[in-house]
Inverse folding.
């Protein structure tokens, strides 16, 4: 500890303190985003929030973990009145003399980042989920709550996720959160409902009551009056006179006295000033302020806004690395869903009770999958998995099925084959896979393992799967 040392550079100033380097970005100073990697944390001088939002979005919206996970502090004498910005940063100091107070937070962040394993995700959705859960892990944040926000095109921001999207694409966060929840990484609670434009998915809508005939909002309304003594019913306009503000019945010419006694206002009538149509009930239209579309509210897309809470599975996915969503795996040709695999296994075990057959389930496990996936981009990863599946497919019978348990574990059935032979086929198959990898990807060392479990009709299918994958997951 001791004196903070300041080094001025072209862009930003480096402040060294207690073995840490802080990148200090002054108001309106340009930022070389790659430079963020060389520092333990970033401090942004906060004079104008638009500028701060821009810098913070560039850091948090980056795809490199050593940029988007970097602690960010605002330097401001006053508190920041923006919940979204507050959620995106890690704290505030009133002036640079207070740098010492940040050291503990920065070190805690560094420790947490060290727990994480990074793997290139196989799809955009998986990549966004990874960013979101790793940020939550390093910030020790367990919940992802929607914040009403005028800068959001869907009116609510989930800061750690929304920061990755431009205004026109922001509705995609809802889809990604749905996927993350269905993967079991989050549980959710209902918060509110929003409506999105059916053309551009913006929620910046202006609602108006309009004429059902011509959709004009230029209308006037009048009370309907029912005169009890003579039974006449008509708009209030017909009862008005030019001399005073009293009302006279146009049919029987009597002066109206007390509402509820000699007359009543049973309803309202509307008249369109554009097409002169008169009507009792308005239509309600929503005009989209983003694309200009103006349609009936019935055509809007209704979406539920939820609060999300990280599950144990979500936390462990942050630590181990989250590579694929179930949907990504489902898209690999020649495989079936894991749930379908389980159902088929159940039936096979039932069948074995009747016959004296010998069937097996087998697993192939990529021991160093995180390392492998982090070396390959998402297109190559999908290519690798496709290649593996086609090799496996050509070595088993067409009646056997293949599925993914996770992005590192492939499971398959080998029915009506002695266990010894299954083991032999698997051994040969893994050798073929290793050859394929060696010829396709130079210098990529993929470590495979395999296991075969003979089906025993005295045991439930879950037990077989556990026995098969226990060493692999
Ligand atoms: Zn009209
Ligand atoms: Zn009357
Ligand atoms: Zn629109």
């Amino acid at each position: 500890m001791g004196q903070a040392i300041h080094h001025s550079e072209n862009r930003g100033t480096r402040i060294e303190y207690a073995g840490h380097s802080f990148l200090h970005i002054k108001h309106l100073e340009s930022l070389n985003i790659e430079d963020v990697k060389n520092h333990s944390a970033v401090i942004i001088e906060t004079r104008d929030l638009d500028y701060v939002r821009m810098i913070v979005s560039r850091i948090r919206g980056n795809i490199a973990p050593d940029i988007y996970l970097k602690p960010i502090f605002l330097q401001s004498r006053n508190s920041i009145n923006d919940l979204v910005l507050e959620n995106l940063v890690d704290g505030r100091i009133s002036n640079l003399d207070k740098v010492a107070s940040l050291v503990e937070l920065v070190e805690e962040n560094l420790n947490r980042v060290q727990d994480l394993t990074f793997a290139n995700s196989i799809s955009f959705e998986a990549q966004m989920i990874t960013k979101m859960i790793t940020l939550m892990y390093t910030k020790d944040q367990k919940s992802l709550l929607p914040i009403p926000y005028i800068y959001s095109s869907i009116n609510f921001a989930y800061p750690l996720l929304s920061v990755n999207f431009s205004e026109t694409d922001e509705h995609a966060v809802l889809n990604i959160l749905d996927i993350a929840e269905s993967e079991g990484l989050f549980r959710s609670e209902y918060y509110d409902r929003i409506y999105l434009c059916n053309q551009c998915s913006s929620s910046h809508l202006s609602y108006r009551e309009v004429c059902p005939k011509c959709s004009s909002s230029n209308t006037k309304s009048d009370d309907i009056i029912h005169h009890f003594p003579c039974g006449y019913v008509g708009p209030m306009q017909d009862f008005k006179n030019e001399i005073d503000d009293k009302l006279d019945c146009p049919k029987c010419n009597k002066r109206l006295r007390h509402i509820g006694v000699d007359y009543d206002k049973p309803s309202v009538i509307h008249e369109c000033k554009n097409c002169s149509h008169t009507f009792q009930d308005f239509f309600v239209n929503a005009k989209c302020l983003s694309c200009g579309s103006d349609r009936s509210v019935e055509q809007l897309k209704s979406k539920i806004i939820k609060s999300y809470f990280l599950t144990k599975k979500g936390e462990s996915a942050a630590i181990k690395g989250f590579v694929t969503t179930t949907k990504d795996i489902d898209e690999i040709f020649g495989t079936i869903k894991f749930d379908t695999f389980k159902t088929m296994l159940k039936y096979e075990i039932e069948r074995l009770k009747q016959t004296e057959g010998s069937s097996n389930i087998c697993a192939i496990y990529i021991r160093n999958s995180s390392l492998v996936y982090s070396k390959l981009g998402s297109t190559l990863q999908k290519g690798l998995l496709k290649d593996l599946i086609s090799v496996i497919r050509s070595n088993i019978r067409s009646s056997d099925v293949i599925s993914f348990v996770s992005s590192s574990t492939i499971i398959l059935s080998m029915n009506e084959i002695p266990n010894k032979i299954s083991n032999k086929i698997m051994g040969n198959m893994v050798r073929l896979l290793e050859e394929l990898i060696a010829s396709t990807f130079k210098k990529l060392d993929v470590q495979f393992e395999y296991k075969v479990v003979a089906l025993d009709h005295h045991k439930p299918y879950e037990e077989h799967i556990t026995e098969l994958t226990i060493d692999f997951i």
User: Anything to note?
Assistant: The pocket of zinc ion (ligand 2) is lined by residues 227, 229-230, 232, 249, 251-252, 254 (CB under 6 Å). The chain has 14 helices and 22 strands.
